[in-house]
Specification:
mainly alpha, about 0% strand, globular, about 120 residues
Length: about 120
């Protein structure tokens, strides 16, 4: 998996396949249990949070304009995507389908005409 190669995967399914091969080439699939991958994912999300933690909302919104900070944020998001994709693959979850299903559920719970402009949490029916 060459981070500088732009001929890599273009879809989530292709990324999952590439990550699966990457793990197999190194005999790492034995370590890629759902628990371990979820813990690694949480750790990487924590590292992403740490990059943005003490920024003002305005600074965070413009983080990518700063080459140094933007590079770190991009790298952490890459790590999050890698672990999320690998976890979904190990569990046999279609990541795009899971997101679409969740979006359908959230749209039902938060109809636009009722919640527009509000951050209030919906009460479960």
């Amino acid at each position: 998996m060459n981070g500088n190669d732009n001929s890599g995967p273009k879809t989530v399914a292709e990324l999952a396949e590439q990550l699966r091969g990457f793990a197999e080439d190194r005999d790492w699939q034995q370590f890629h249990t759902p628990k371990n991958l979820a813990m690694a994912l949480a750790g990487e999300v924590g590292e992403l949070l740490a990059e943005l933690q003490w920024l003002t909302p305005e600074e965070a919104a413009h983080a990518m304009a700063d080459p140094e900070l933007g590079g770190r944020v991009r790298a952490e998001i890459g790590d999050v995507m890698i672990y999320l994709t690998r976890l979904a693959d190990v569990l046999g979850i279609d990541l795009v389908r899971a997101a679409e299903d969740k979006l359908t559920e959230v749209a039902r719970r938060y109809p636009a005409e009722r919640v527009r402009g509000s951050a209030a949490k919906a009460v479960r029916p």
